[in-house]
Amino acid sequence: MRKGGDGRLTMALDPQDQGPQDACGVFGVWAPGEDVAKLTYYGIFALQHRGQESAGIAVSNARQILVYKDMGLVSQVFDESTLEALKGHLAIGHCRYSTTGASTWHNAQPTFQPTPHGSIALAHNGNLTNTAELAGMVDDLAALDGELDLHVREPDAATNDTSVVTALLAHHPDSTVEEKAMELLPQVKGAFCFVWMDENTLYAARDPQGIRPLVLGRLERGWVVASETAALDIVGASFIREIEPGEMVVIDQDGLRSRSFAEAAPKHCLFEFVYLARPDTLMTGRRVHSVRVEIGRRLARDFPADADLVIPVPESGTPSAIGFAEESGIPYGVGLVKNSYVGRTFIQPSQTIRQLGIRLKLNPLRDIIEGKRLVVVDDSIVRGNTQRALIRMLREAGAKEVHVRISSPPVKWPCFYGIDFATRAELIANGLSTEEICRSIDADSLAYIDLDELVEATEVAKDDLCRACFDGTYPVPLPDPVHLGKNLLEQSALPIEVEAEGLATSLTGFGANDALDRP
Fold first, then answer.
1. pTM for this one?
2. Span 139-186, pLDDT tens digits
3. Which one from 24, 95, 269, 469 is the annotated catalytic residue?
4. Is residue 247 within 8 Å of residue 395, measured between CB atoms?
5. Active-site residue, 24 included
6. Beta-carbon contacts of residue 275 (< 8 Å; ≥ 6 apart)
């Protein structure tokens, strides 16, 4: 039997300095006569950057839905023989990073729920804020008629917010799936892009704030929905439009129809522009690469540096480094080489290798940087450990000066809408000023782009963006801290510590207040 992945991926490299972990990627296709399983495979392959813990595909042949999922990367979960067995006219796919529920096979998606009226398979990108309330609704349904048997607290059962929504959608004894969705979706709170299916129909819905991206594409013989336009490009679908906040799209043999389940109140995630989305993706009418280049130009104007070379921290720092170089007139160069496969090993590094830290991911080009004054452009600073190790490595390779420029404002608040940041206590910008962080990471200078400048670079109105991780303004109200957290539905959830501000933090991890003293 072919061995799947274990979902560890890059997590074991430096468990004390995980960067912001991506949201999930969703894909759906309705295309009779096409090989929908392979289209879905390539669609979620294009979205692999959004989640690397598990992957799955569900396919319907109009009589039954077959789901195949496993831990690991898309290319590790599926092979030619597996895809050949998935035949039908309709499919959905998912690549996961866990934000609610542990990274286990039982929480891999698409989720599946059989019912007396037909089956439901569902894939979700985002994170819900009223999961506890929805789980209570499932318990009430099960108590009423015994149809549902969703023991969300059993160790071997799914313990994510997606499985709860799937169970509620599947319970529609006196209505259609479409009508059930119109009744349920207004009650779902938080960030969600749902792509789901029954035996004959493809559905997609985006939360009223549109926090996570979701787009619609056209094939010659069908339709595609996906998290990003890059997934449309890879399968040869033409981009039609973004699915609107508060909109549900239904695709079947009668064509495509759109229904609004809530009034749109756009709050697109600002961090998608900084880091999450692929640079070749279109969001809100702009290519992400162009936005990031513009961010670099603004950094150069607001925070110039007297230097010899501009280098990016690949890959997410590359477009902004290009913009910085263009605006400043300082030459752009490649000073760091990235090992593209470091996140694709399932072999835990030994202690000796682990001590190498960032060298597992990046290696300096000594001939390029020796004796140079460098501007190093990166997307964000979370705990500061990575930047500290990077600057040490550059100095050891002969860099004369290192000036760090960051293409996002200081990250001070956790995300509850689908990005797994560190806790507030672990975010270095919470405990230290910019000058103190500069000393902590041993840079010659440090500057972050101003929040208003970042917003202007996107060309999206500030009030239409979710900026919570930067300014603490959460567009969707949060429940009590006891109802927040990745392990909310798990029997073995850790106790939650509550800060003075009322936000939950983990009981483990390093606070920022000792960052100056850490090696």
1. 0.85
2. 888 554 544 454 433 334 445 678 899 999 998 888 899 999 999 999
3. 24
4. no
5. yes
6. 20, 316, 379, 380, 408
